[in-house]
Amino acid sequence: MAHDHLQRLLLDNLTTAVVLLDAELRLEYMNPAAEMLLGVSGQRSLGLFVSELFKEVPDGLSALRQAVASAHPFTKREAQLLCSSPTSLTVDYTATPILGSHGTLLLLELHPRDRLLRITKEEAQLSKQETTRQLVRGLAHEIKNPLGGIRGAAQLLARELPDPALKDYTKVIIEEADRLRNLVDRLLGSNKLPQLAPVNIHEVLARVCSLVEAESQGRLTLERDYDPSIPELLADREQLIQAVLNIVRNAMQAIATRRNPTEPGRIVLRTRALRQFTIGHQRHRLVCRVEIIDNGPGIDPALKDTLFYPMVSGRADGTGLGLAIAQNILNQHHGLIECESQPGCTVFSLFLPLEQGAPTP
């Protein structure tokens, strides 16, 4: 009895999620780590079929049945599980058959991978963005120097021209040099550090909504789905308005390109608070998530990996700077932007840390 109690104590205190199934793939036991991972009560779930606890996509029941029948263990990497919660889980799991006196049992050890995959993805994304930013800054420096010389030479030439009509040509040179300089400045983004002050994210969204409603003139519907419990965050209000407005305007323009729309244009602004959320390699105690959802045609899959790069646009008349500027603003606030898109539903998610102190590693 003491030995059985010790084994149960060890299983209950493991950080690895452990699930024990009988030969019919019905639950015999799960430890607290598995309860936390799958979002179910082990006591209330006893006797339930495994597909009532979670479903693997694509279906993995045949592999579990084969393991019981052949008594051969197997391991799956980055399996997608659908649980009781609306989100899916990515896990590595090992299925080990155990031959006991009352028949064959199947031991599942589940290792969550979502946080590690997110860290890897976000670090790679931030690294690529930093490399691109350094490249753009170097290129911009090389462009602005000769532009200044061209503009100055055109001004000197204009003073020496005897015929005033010829000054129209130097005027074109000066105006085009100024246009290129302004484009380069927009590529570089603002050099000013954010002016941090307590900001209510819903006031930021309200300002964006008022601007968008004036621009759209009733051609689309704006829906608000807010979490009123979200506290204020330290941020630059004007910069956040600019970041959100850039994304919402992109959504408006995408909706306008739909062919034969079956439903009116709609943009949803949704806020939620997330706990113990990882951005890059930092885990934050509390994070604000702002989702901007539109029912436009979706983003071209060929653009998804370079979506936040400067000068990348899915529209012929687009500058490709709106998302790059928004991402730069979020980076200055130690936040992040993610995008998921399919035809009829594009979701941009903005993540902003809410804690006042330094983030916890």
How would you describe this structure to a colleague?
With 361 residues, this protein is α+β, with helices and mostly antiparallel strands. A six-stranded antiparallel sheet has the order 2-1-6-5-4-3. The protein contains ten helices and 13 strands. Residues 356-361 have low confidence and may be disordered. It folds into three domains: 2-112, PAS domain (Beta-Lactamase, 2-Layer Sandwich); 117-188; 197-353, Heat Shock Protein 90, CATH 3.30.565.10. It is 42% helix and 28% strand. It is elongated and about 110 Å long. Strand 10 and strand 11 form a beta hairpin.
Could you give a short description of this structure?
This protein has 361 residues and is an alpha+beta fold. The chain is 42% helix and 28% strand.
Supply the key terms.
single chain, 361 residues, alpha+beta, Beta-Lactamase, Heat Shock Protein 90, six-stranded antiparallel beta sheet, five-stranded mixed beta sheet, 42% helix, elongated, disordered C terminus
Tally of contiguous helical segments: 10
Strand order of the largest sheet: 2-1-6-5-4-3
CATH architectural type of the largest domain: 2-Layer Sandwich
Number of separate domains: 3
Q: How many strands, which pairing sense, and closed or not: the largest β-sheet?
A: 6 strands, antiparallel
Low-confidence stretches: 356-361
| Approximate shape | elongated
CATH homologous superfamily label of the largest domain: Histidine kinase-like ATPase, C-terminal domain
- Give the rounded overall mean pLDDT: 82
Q: What percentage of residues falls in helices of 4 or more residues?
A: 40-55%
Looking at the structure, the CATH topology of the largest domain is Heat Shock Protein 90
Q: How many beta-strand elements?
A: 13
In terms of DSSP E residues, the strand content is: 25-35%
Structural class: alpha+beta
Topology as a string of helices (H) and strands (E): HEEHHHEHEEEHHEHEEHEEHEE
CATH class of the largest domain: Alpha Beta
Q: What is the terminal-to-terminal distance? A: 42 Å
